[in-house]
Input
Amino acid sequence: MLKTFSGFVLLTASMTIMAQTPTFDNDAKTFRLDGGDVSYVFGVNPRGELQQLYWGGRLAATDHFPQAAPMPEWASFDTSYTNTPQEYAGWGNGLYNEPSLKITFADGNRDLVLHYESHKVTERGFDIVLKDIKTAIFVTLHYSIDPDSGILARSAIIENKESQPVTIEQAAAAAWAVPPGHYTMNYLTGRWAGEWTLTQEPIHPGARIIESCRGSTGHQANPWFAIQSGDPDENHGEVWFGALAWSGSWRITVEQDQLDSVRITGGFNPFDFGYVLKPGESLETPVFYGGYAAHGLGEASRILHHFEIAHVLPHRIGEGDTAAPKPRPVIYNSWEATEMNVTEAGQEALAEKVAALGIDRFVMDDGWFGQRKTDHAGLGDWYVNTEKFPHGLKPLIDKVHSLGMDFGLWVEPEMVNPDSDLYRKHPDWVLNFPGRPRTEQRNQLVLNLARPDVRAYVYGFLDKLLTENDIAFLKWDYNRNWSEPGWDQLPPAEQKKVYVEFTRNLYSILAELKTKHPKVELESCSGGGGRVDLGILQYADEVWPSDNTDPFDRLTQQDGFTYVYTPQVMMAWVTDSPHWLNKRTTSLEYRMLSSMQGSLGIGANIAKWSDEEAATAKRLIAAYHQVQPTIVQGNLYRLISPRNGSEFSATQTVNRDKSQSVVFLFIHSTQEGRIFPRLKLQGLDPAAQYALTPIEDKPSPTTPTTASGAWWMNRGLDMSEDFRGDYQAAAFRLDRK
Ligand code: DGJ
Output
């Protein structure tokens, strides 16, 4: 940009005029948001509906949209109302696509048609008020855009200003639309010990639903979607993606509509939903984040990762613009070593061995409380078991501190075993339908956290635990899904509010604990990755992606996980070999390098380790500490995917100023003598020189040890012939000279 003598600014031909965001065009009745490389535009059409106009690459400030024109009807079968991509459509007026809002009124009316009423410009977006054409149902739509990533945050508040109660049967956070085209849908599916499978399929006419009806996020699907134009591709093609910030039952519907455009609607799961709004009451939906990337799924995940780091996760270091999540301490967790057989002497002995490895945090898992010997008893009784810890937790905590580590503890606050003092005293505190069976899973029932007395109990015991003990970290577990979700304190018509109030109370407990005990960090675990979403990640510093710690399975799981979530939150423990789940034998080096792609932990029974194994772990933990910020907060490139039985896989991360990069390479099993394919790196500064150093020094490259970024990206890294075999791993760092 050049400043002329007259003080005006000249623009060269290649420069784009950037719009001030947000902008409202009063003549055309259009709203426009710009952020990062993204523009999002919608407007009020002549009928008064809020209609989507554009979502994609950033437009110039001079680009102008005329007033939104509704889509025509398609013969007498598809009305203009249903064909028009609305930002938030009420169910009524002949809508055959997924509605954003469906309401039953006190008089039996179920028709709802939302029209624009007013709006307010906010710092980064708009608050837009819609109103039903006949009744006093108001919906305020919140829009804001992140200026760096172009990620939009959308949510809705539904307000009843009628004189009678209404029942909300379906409430989305937002609806998105993508123009007609050939698309691939990407989403994540799984099961316990098999989470994070990237599922990819062409989008066909009709609806594809991904959801949880289980009361919590679930292992079986994760609240994220990515729609890619054309076939799936890591580096090319437009991608529209979104993630719901909600840890209760959720649903995302992706439908190719009758005129071939694609609509995505997501929010509370309407299954078994029914939220009664009395006059004057309102319901706020979760936030549905949405983003756009012009260059494939890889770019889409990098945008999301940086957004999570900058705007979602708890910030523990820095202030203002430099505030960031703290790279996770390298932890030791006792679960796979001692299960519930935890004792003061046993844990102290383990802690001594652990400290010698250079570990930062010692976490004692399940088994320390109540009458907890097996999973049949104890949940709910959050007092220290004095048989196992005769003097309370203090001696162990002191010992851990004296060894230079901080101390973390396992809890499962929302659950109760019928064999517990808590359940004997308060059998009415669990989710249940009176007189019906109470289905146990892992011998436990779910406390109804929506109840004020249960909320008070859960907050109370956690506050006491954290006040009386020097605890740096809680691993917050949740080991079953809901059944019989009754809340018999409320009148029958209102009981389904449990789907909202339970999760809201969970968040409010976490928020209150964070205020009272600001230094305490948190892991969200639900028998592995059953509660990972952008809602819980406002409070949780990390998550436990899976109980499956097999290092080979983890490669695919970690690959899937990173489509949505940053490696910063991806805890990965090194455990014993042969692995308990697959009976697979792998070297400690392979296990370490698999785990070092995320936030590293050790969960093995290290009491049984040889001196040589301990030395290997110590060396690699020290190497990890040196490059950890690059791995967990840098730009991630999935160079070769381990999916679909791939013989090879590789990942690379580059830090933000491109001064360091870390590369991991894995061989599943060499076939026909093939050596590792030449690996072209990404994201480096082409003009800079980078020195390559092995992190794990056994397999060696044949390329020079110092070369330009251009060399590493164009010529690539060649591995020597000795890098062959089954379950082989190598890792390198590149440092700018
Ligand atoms: C399930 C978790 O995923 C495990 O890591 C462990 O904490 C057990 N629960 C303890 O019961």
Q: What stands out?
A: Residues 335, 365-366, 410, 477, 479, 525, 527-528, 544, 547 surround DGJ (CB under 6 Å). Confidence is low (pLDDT under 50) at residues 1-19. DSSP finds twelve helices and 38 strands in the chain.
